[in-house]
Amino acid sequence: MQFTVDRLRIEITTKDCEIPQDERARLQTSLSALGEDVKDFAEPSLVVHVVYHPRSERFHVKFKMNLPGRTLFTGEEDSHLDTALRQGLTKLKRKVEAYKENPDQEAVTAAERRADLDSDVVAPEDPDVGALAEAADAGDYQTFHTGLACYEEWLRKRVGRLVQRHPEAQARVGKELLLGDVVEGVYLNAFERFTRRPTDVRLSEWLEGLIEPSIRALMRYPEEEREATSMARSVRNAP
Question: Which of 56, 57, 115, 154 could staple 42 via S-S, CB 3.0–4.6 A?
Answer without folding.
Answer: 115
